[in-house]
Amino acid sequence: EGGVGRRRRGIMTDRNPLYNADAKKDFREMQERIKHMQGRDKKELSSQTEARRRGEAEWSAEKRQMAAKEKARQDAMLRQRIETAGERGRDSKQLDPRTEQRRQLAVERREAIARDNARGLPPGQANMERERIKTAGAAPRTAFHLDREVELRREQEEALRALKRREVALRLMNDSSSFKKTLAYIGSKGGRDEKALSGAVEEARCEAAERRADFKRAEQDKIKRENEEYRRKVAAAAEANAGDE
To answer: Residue 116 CB: number of other CB atoms within 10 A?
Structure first.
């Protein structure tokens, strides 16, 4: 089996497991044992690994049972909700009128939300407005009234945003005292309706237009005075030159 002193590529064959037959045989047996353990040979599987496997199997079975119970509970709740709302086998004579009214209102609200989504409104905005209006109201309204109130609220918010943009423009062209007066006037009109809002905007716009006109007249007067002064200087210089000649 390759005696002592025989060399191959400078390596002792009796000390190298790759070239020693006995060592190679032991190495192959060890690989077979490892392969059997990895292949879950029950005879060589340790008791700890087997206990852990049984525990995991029991926990998986328990989780499946819990999921089945939860699904059965949710199905029972759904069936009860459907029967309460009258979606299955509903008898109009025995159905509670308040339940029918709530069901009809829910259907209208879902249709209104679908229309808002089709119009491209921000997600959830129309729904929040509708919930706020419904909570503040005393009697249940239809989707038509809800849409009208949402549209009115949106128009008021757009007018308020336009007013804020004009306030920024006024800040750039007005002095600090006039701007403070404008802000004080606008701030005192909290909770105003559209007529008062448009009146405040119109007054601010007129004031800004008057200031622009005054500034333009002042610039024109300044240019006119400078031109007259230049003409006088030219005429005086011409007279002086004529006298010298």
So the answer is: 20
Host H or E run for residue 172 = helix 143-173
Contacts of 185 (CB under 8 A, 6+ apart): 200, 203
Angle at 23 between CA 17 and CA 27, to 5 degrees: 90
Residue range 190-215, pLDDT digits in tens? 545 455 556 666 777 788 888 888 88
Q: How many CB atoms lie within 10 A of CB 233?
A: 10
pLDDT in tens, 135-147: 555 445 555 555 6
Q: Measuring CA to CA, how many Å separate 170 from each of 94, 99, 167, 216?
A: 66, 55, 5, 17
Contact 143, 111 (CB under 8 A): yes
Residues 6+ apart with CB under 8 A from 36: 44
Count of CB atoms situated within 10 Å of the CB of 200: 18
